[in-house]
Design goal:
The chain is mainly β. The chain has two domains: about 50-350, Pectate Lyase C-like (3 Solenoid); about 360-455, Immunoglobulin-like (Sandwich). It has two helices and 44 strands. The strands form six sheets. It has a twelve-stranded mixed beta sheet. An eleven-stranded parallel beta sheet has the order 4-7-10-13-16-19-22-25-28-31-33, with no helix packed on it. Strands 5-8-11-14-17-20-23-26-29-32 form a ten-stranded parallel beta sheet. Strand 36 (about 360-365) and strand 37 (about 370) form a beta hairpin. The radius of gyration is 27 Å and the shape is globular.
């Protein structure tokens, strides 16, 4: 009898042992700091052991959630092409209520039609390397400060790609904000200060950049080295407030818009002169500033010999040189001898004869089997390597050497013994040269393709 009982107990123990498995190890959301796994992103954020400063790694997949972020964590998606946070369609998709929050590597979509995809009223926020497909606003900042929005693709929406209200110290760089379906604004800056908008592609909106002093001034705004194209208005200045607002718009290419610059000024609204210089105004239907309401005398050049802007419809000559509205010095200097009339009481006293030497180079990287790849370093001449899957550069016209990494490996997140080895194969023109030499005379898109080899390593011994 004791032998039978012992056998039964052993069988039960053996059966239990067979069914033992690592708890939660198969779940797709992983707190790197605590080692815990979760079914949903919200569960990972809400977990008692999750605290400020933790990193939450999210595997590829679709997460049907509306997130409330109340901890300063780094929410890190595997890849924005394969990792999606799709809201319920009834709320904000990512509602950030904590400071010191970073989000990267996601596609974010399906907000309520009256709510933004990403919303915050916090400090020290970073949104990078995401694709945001929105119904109203892609990223909405209200009373926020020290925010970095970089290397995102923001499409769709009926109001704005990025909207700022009463915010400060915001950096908006290397984003593509385009193809808004009847969207009002690419970037909306309202009553905000110390804002930099640099190296962005802002296209196919009603207003590329919208500057508004609704109930308070905006100031210390720098809009520089952007490509602003195919909008109804490249830049709109909308003045309602009685104070004074100002901005510096320098080094941009503003092209193929209906109106290059539109200013709307309500009665009694105040405004300081804005600074426009070293921009290229090319083939806009109204290649100047259009005023609705009282005009403002803006500054349209940086003096002599620095110069003003390039205007594609300027028909002046460059025979003389020197400062002053009527140049009398010997020889040409690259600056038109006569001023360019920009609009009511506005003149560019030193229009340049040739476009400012800027061109937009984009380098995309793809695998022939795996889709978009993250972390492929790109070198362009002596520029620092860019570790993003999409690298945007604004460069002077000229000849450059462009190089991508020849090979690298990635571990399969579901199988630690499985690796993908990526090898550079060719550029979009079939060339296998790496580095590749190109000459820029206009915007240029390069694509690097990789072939993929699956590799396995022996699993480590158990026990």
């Amino acid at each position: 009898m004791s032998w039978i009982v012992s056998t039964i107990i052993s069988a039960v123990i053996l059966s239990s042992a067979v069914n033992v498995r690592p708890v939660f190890a198969h779940l797709p959301v992983h707190n790197i700091n605590t080692g815990e796994y979760f079914e949903t992103i919200q569960d990972a954020i809400n977990a008692p052991n999750t605290t400020n400063g933790h990193t939450i790694q999210v595997d590829a997949g679709v997460y049907n959630e509306d997130l409330v972020v109340n901890k300063g964590v780094w929410l890190k998606g595997e890849n924005r092409s394969t990792t999606t946070i799709s809201g319920t369609g009834t709320k904000i998709v990512v509602d950030v209520r904590a400071s010191n929050f970073t989000m990267s590597g996601f596609t974010i979509n399906n907000s309520d039609t009256e709510e933004p995809c990403v919303y915050t009223e916090s400090q020290n926020l970073t949104v990078e390397n995401c694709r945001i497909i929105n119904r109203l606003i892609g990223i909405s900042l209200e009373s926020s400060s020290h925010v970095n929005i970089t290397n995102n693709i923001i499409i769709g929406g009926t109001y704005a790609g990025i909207a700022l209200v009463r915010s400060d110290h915001v950096s908006i760089t290397y984003n593509k904000i385009a193809n808004g379906l009847n969207r009002t604004h690419g970037i909306d800056i309202n009553e905000s200060a110390t804002i930099t908008v640099v190296y962005n592609n802002i296209s196919d909106n009603i207003n590329g950049v919208f500057l508004c002093n609704g109930e308070g001034d905006y100031g210390d705004i720098t809009i520089s080295n952007n490509y602003i194209a195919n909008n109804t208005n490249g830049i709109e200045i909308f003045l309602q407030y009685a104070g004074v607002s100002s901005a510096t718009i320098v080094g941009n290419t503003i092209t193929n818009n209906e109106k290059a610059v539109l200013q709307v000024r309500w009665e009694g609204a105040g405004c300081s002169p804005h600074n426009f210089y070293h921009n290229n105004f090319v083939n806009n239907t109204h290649n100047n500033i259009t005023f609705k309401g009282a005009a403002v005398a803006h500054n349209w050049d940086d003096g002599y010999p620095s110069g003003g802007n390039y205007w594609s419809n300027y028909n002046g000559t460059d025979v003389h040189s020197g400062p002053g509205p009527n140049q009398t010095g010997p020889g040409w200097d690259g600056i038109g001898d006569a001023a360019y009339s920009v609009g009511q009481n506005n003149s560019d006293n030193y229009p340049v004869m040739n476009p400012w030497p800027l061109a937009h180079l984009q380098v995309h990287t793809f695998a022939t089997e795996q889709g978009e790849i993250e972390n492929v370093s790109v070198w362009v001449d002596e520029i620092e390597p860019c570790q993003n899957s999409t690298a945007y550069f604004l460069l002077k016209y000229g000849t450059y050497s462009v190089k991508v990494r020849t090979s690298f490996s990635r571990q399969d997140p579901q199988d630690p013994t499985k690796y993908y080895r990526y090898y550079f194969d060719h550029w979009e023109n079939g060339s296998k040269q790496n580095p590749r030499t190109i000459t820029l005379t206009s915007d240029k898109l390069l694509t690097a393709y990789y072939r993929v080899q699956v590799m396995y390593i022996e699993a480590p011994p158990r026990g």
